[in-house]
Design brief:
With 410 residues, this protein is mostly helical. It has helices at 3-27, 30-39, 44-85, 90-99, 103-117, 122-129, 135-147, 150-161, 170-209, 215-243, 246-254, 257-278, 285-294, 299-313, 318-324, 329-335, 341-401.
Length: 410
């Protein structure tokens, strides 16, 4: 079992344990949870810190491992891209690259060289030697080999994987990616601690003074009693989806409007660029469309492309098959004007640049909006928690400090 599969298995076990523990905490009566904490002399602050550590440490460790694998993947793909771009023999180039690396990177490069020397294709050698490279990347390399456009495919993969000048550093992208998950977890833990330790006492004191709890306190209590099970199930599942099958992540992203458009534009840009390059080899269009589906990392777009290729094999024209397969209207409309393979290559190259521009624009919008949305979300959460605690205290202080009139005097 490779390291990526071990990480996925550990993430699955952690998510299941988290869901079970939080469900028990949510559905148990508050008095039972509070008595358990008191009987075992567990400070409320320590309980909150332990709960927060249970969620944050696996998330940070998970992303740390993925960052290390990402860097290893970038280095290996960069060596392969350099060898293909300069038309150098891969085994000798990989041997020289291995001498410049240390540790696991050196072992991965030497293993890749060994498999290539024994006559295996580059995609098969990468699948066996470099488990850090995801299956969708291996499929893209295999499709590039089949289409005779391996250098161009590798250049696109390296351009996607390597950091772009002016782009936020990796640690900033990590923070943006997991900010929402950590925010939800922090809110769940705060509401749970308040509902267990603070709200019962506020209820008791309010009844003694004949006061009614404010709406903010009642909202926090109702969130714990009814809404929390939804969030505590959704929060671990978000991380589970982020670390598990690509199809689940693509389906989740497809439900978010702006993110869906960005992911689709990126997938269409890769598709059009691949088809444009492959058309220069003189292969049939049906074969190129089928191979482009193998090179497509987005599960939803790959399903549409396979449907497109299947309809073409059944006799439909290029534009009609694309329209029936659910491809975008711009793509199908421009395909209807194509006359010959040269026109098709130019049209696909233009569409690739167009969708790449749209993806870059949407990604910049999402990147710029991530921090303000995170700040406003955390600020609203903190304001709600503070009001739910301080408003009852202010009301009780007003009752205690108010003058009581007895028969016309103080």
């Amino acid at each position: 079992m490779g390291p990526i599969k071990l990480l996925k298995l550990a993430t699955l076990v952690w998510a299941i344990c988290s869901i079970v523990a939080l469900l028990l905490l949510a559905f148990l009566p508050q008095a039972n949870v509070r008595s358990f904490i008191d009987e075992n002399d567990i400070p409320t602050g320590a309980f909150a810190l332990l709960a927060l550590a249970w969620f944050t440490v696996p998330i940070v460790a998970n992303e740390g491992m993925r960052t290390m694998w990402q860097r290893r993947r970038e280095v290996i793909l960069a060596h392969l891209d350099q060898a293909l771009r300069l038309s150098l023999p891969l085994p000798e180039m990989l041997h020289a690259a291995a001498d410049s690396e240390r540790g696991t990177r050196r072992l991965r490069l030497l293993s890749l060289r060994y498999h290539l020397q024994h006559g295996e294709s580059l995609a098969d050698a990468i699948r066996k030697s470099v488990p850090e490279i995801p299956p969708e990347t291996v499929r893209a390399i295999h499709a590039g080999e089949q289409a005779g456009r391996l250098p161009q495919t590798m250049a696109r993969l390296v351009a996607r994987a390597m950091p772009v000048p002016g782009q936020p550093p990796r640690i900033d992208r990590i923070y943006r990616s997991y900010a929402m998950i950590l925010t939800v977890l922090l809110g769940v833990i705060l509401i749970t601690i308040l509902s267990i330790s603070v709200l019962p006492k506020l209820h008791s004191i309010s009844r003694s003074f004949g006061l009614t709890l404010p709406w903010t306190t009642l909202l926090v209590e109702s969130a714990y009693n009814s809404g929390v099970p939804f969030y505590i199930i959704g929060a671990p599942l978000l991380l589970l989806i982020a670390c598990w099958p690509r199809a689940s992540r693509d389906f989740l992203l497809n439900c978010i409007p702006i993110v869906r458009d960005a992911a689709r534009n990126r997938a269409l840009a890769d598709l059009c660029a691949f088809v444009s390059d492959a058309l220069l080899t003189g292969q049939p269009v049906e074969t190129i469309i089928t191979e482009s589906a193998d090179a497509q990392p987005n599960t939803i777009v790959r399903r549409h492309v396979l449907n497109w290729a299947d309809r073409m094999t059944r006799g439909q024209s290029l534009s009609d098959a694309a329209r029936s397969a659910g491809m975008p209207a711009l793509l199908t409309g421009m395909l209807a004007t194509v006359h010959g393979s040269d026109d098709l290559a130019n049209v696909m190259a233009f569409l690739g640049r167009h969708y790449e521009y749209r993806f870059s624009r949407l990604s910049e919008v999402l990147r710029a909006a991530a921090i303000p949305c995170f700040v406003f979300t955390v600020g609203a959460m903190v304001l709600l928690v503070e009001l739910s605690v301080f408003q009852p205290m202010i009301a009780m202080n007003s009752v205690l400090s108010a003058p009581h009139i007895h028969g016309g005097g103080f």
